[in-house]
Design a protein that fits this description.
Layout: H1 5-14, H2 28-38, H3 41-64, H4 70-94
Helix pairs in contact: 1-4, 3-4
Length: 109
């Protein structure tokens, strides 16, 4: 996937290309695991959003003949990632701390 010139332009535009681990990799999952190990959680989450947007770009190009500019793909991925971060923070803030409640062995009945 990374060798595709259309993918490369999005990765470069988004600034993610310099963070990518270099291969060779046996498969896509090994590449993702290597990416996860060298990136922060926030960077890896952005990579996943970016890959999803690259896939959508490809589908639109194949099915509609419309190639969305790399800059717009990267910008939209930033927006979606920002929304994801806000939702994730709100979820974490709304969950009671696990330390407040402790498991207790049920009584013998």
């Amino acid at each position: 996937m990374r060798e595709c010139s259309k993918v490369q332009e999005v990765l470069i535009t988004s600034g993610m290309d310099s963070l990518m681990p270099q291969g060779p990799f046996r498969d896509y999952f090994e590449w993702l695991e290597a990416s996860h190990s060298v990136m922060s959680s926030e960077q890896f989450a952005f990579l996943i959003v970016l890959l999803w947007n690259i896939w959508n770009r490809r589908n639109r190009w194949i099915h509609s003949g419309q190639l969305i500019p790399a800059r717009l793909v990267a910008e939209y991925a930033q927006l979606v990632h920002g929304d994801y971060q806000q939702v994730a923070e709100n979820i974490v803030d709304s969950i009671p701390c696990a330390r407040e409640k402790k498991w207790m062995k049920p009584g013998d009945n």
